Amino acid sequence: MRRAVVLILDGLRRDFVTPELMPHLASFRSTATWFDGHRSVFPSVTRCVSACFATGCLPARHGLQANTMVLQEPHGQVLHDAGEPGFLDHRRRVTGRSLDVPTLAERLAGQGGSVIMGNVSPGATYAHDPDRFGFLHHRVGSFAPGGEALSDGFDSLRPDLAGDAAMVDRFITEVLFGRQPALAQLWTAEPDHAQHMMELGSPAHLALLRRVDAHAGLVIEAVERLRAAGEDVLLLIGSDHGHQTVDGVVDVAAELAAVLPEAAEAVTVAANGTAALVYVDPARPDLIAGLRAALPQAAWVDRVVGPDGLAEVGHSTANGLAFLIGMRSSEETNAHGVPGLSLVAKPHVGKADRLGFGQHGGVGRWEQSPVLLVQGDGFAAGSVRQEPTSVIDAAPTILRHLGMPADGMDGRALQAG
Asked: Is domain 3-242+368-401 annotated with CATH 3.30.9.10?
């Protein structure tokens, strides 16, 4: 049976993969295909990207619009953190579905199955299999097919290097060489988790990247052993987005209320790092014209997409979404010479403002520079492909390797030929 192995190193930007910083991944490039035009989605945030990765579809199709988003509920618009463990269950109660299209886990049920391990937020991990078609492992709660809770010891792990190290070990021993599903997937917390709390390019950050690379090296070596034993394995190593350095914080809700006072009560701003989603109460469509006039003039805006353009970036007006904002970014460098500075939307209550540290969500060059390396049938060793690719291309690529259809997806299989 053919198998697919996926390793996602959350938040790793492409230019950090160098022989000096990440020798295992740099060496892996010589035996895999490197996708130099690979991009995230908008907003470039993990919960949204997780749903895109799992379904092969853009947010307009799967329905998870961002890390922080609004749901249109019977009593009005309600702002939610999609990283909370119960968010997708709540969405199912409100809309009838956890996600609006099938995931890889659902498609592979009865076809070799899936084992998914995640050390990021519970909501992001659960987005890969919200309806429990496969095995899902996370510190907040793990599940067998059908939803039976598992006591697997993952509750002691933390979203850091130590937690990732423990997960990598168990992924290799228990999943790759033990349970041997059609899809084995591990999504690590680092380098994203620490990059939000450190200066990109600092000695601590460079040390972090070397440790992350060592984890990747262990998975690469394990797959080599599987192949030596006769397994036909597709190995996909990548990331969901990059990071840029925060150089300012903007209270987007306050800014909008200052130019359009009516927005204070009828507009909800969902801050998503270097992006913001603007929702308008369906009873107040008259506000959209004022927002359309004001937003492009704001000095803190890099890109604004209005209702008429949402489809072009993979979104719809579901839940009252009216505007997507990419916060202002630049190619200037931080104190350590790392290019890419960005403003961020003021976080919601309980989340820190982290000036000088890493962040993502918008359309800046470096946050839109994730990694994608694929090794296996259909991918030439040491080749570089320049065409635009996206996280939505992962699922159809995996399904093609496994000999299964990828109908109803927005992405495309990336195998040559």
From this structure: no
